[in-house]
Write a structure and sequence with these properties.
Elements lengths: L2 H21 L8 E6 L5 E6 L5 H18 L1 H4 L9 H27 L6 H18 L14 H5 L1 H28 L3 H29 L1
Helix pairs in contact: 1-2, 1-4, 2-4, 4-5, 5-7, 7-8
């Protein structure tokens, strides 16, 4: 089978999976279901059970858009970076679609079981996603759509590469730590630890990139 078409088939399966999962228990849902939850995981919004399809439809559209964006970066990137590796962007897109599909499943499971502690599912899933993204950062070539798109990284390839190697370590290990703490910490501490770890994951690479730029000057 052509590798390009196999990617499309895999994306279609990932997007369709939440719909198939929902179909296994949709008939047993009550007429009114929770549609929104607060930080404590308590339902604070309700709607008809047909609203259960909103998540799979919306996230499915976002998934398809993201994947199509990733595989067409060279065509729409203003600078047409010649060294962009199409294979990496395809995998990057597939990982994002897989994550969004998993997120869809978690939301549907919470709809099915309102008492389920959703933070114990979503935050570890996000940590895993960030960790996988971190492992790909060092291989990500310059582009305007994915990665740390800063003035200094976009104007200088050496800065881009150094910044993403540096960021990759923070995201790889930071994501693993978020995933572990998401499972073991109780209640609100799960959210606190998640966002505390997120701060250096975001700002350390930005500071590193700027210092790299200043050193180059």
């Amino acid at each position: 089978m052509n590798k390009q078409y196999s990617h499309y088939i895999l994306v279609a399966i990932l997007v369709a999976a939440p719909f198939l999962y929902l179909s296994t228990f949709y008939a047993s849902l009550p007429a009114t279901i929770p549609t929104h939850f607060n930080l404590k995981g308590e339902a604070d919004g309700f709607g008809s059970k047909s609203m259960a399809f909103f998540g799979p439809v919306f996230i499915g559209i976002v998934s398809l858009f993201t994947y199509l964006l990733m595989i067409n970066i060279k065509k729409i990137d203003p600078k047409r970076y010649a060294n962009n590796n199409d294979a990496y962007f395809k995998v990057f897109g597939l990982i994002t679609v897989a994550f969004l599909s998993g997120l869809n499943m978690v939301i549907l499971t919470k709809t099915k079981q309102p008492d389920l502690p959703i933070d114990k599912l979503i935050l570890p899933l996000l940590g895993l996603f960030f960790s996988v993204m971190g492992s790909f950062f060092p291989k990500l070539s310059q582009n305007y759509f994915a990665g740390f798109k800063l003035p200094w990284t976009l104007s200088n390839e050496e800065n881009w590469n150094a910044t993403h190697i540096y960021a990759g370590k923070f995201w790889l290990y930071g994501g693993i730590l978020q995933m572990i703490l998401g499972f073991v910490l109780p209640g609100i501490w799960t959210f606190i630890s998640f966002f505390v770890i997120m701060i250096p994951m975001v700002f350390a690479p930005i500071i590193f990139s700027y210092r790299f730029f200043k050193a180059g000057k």
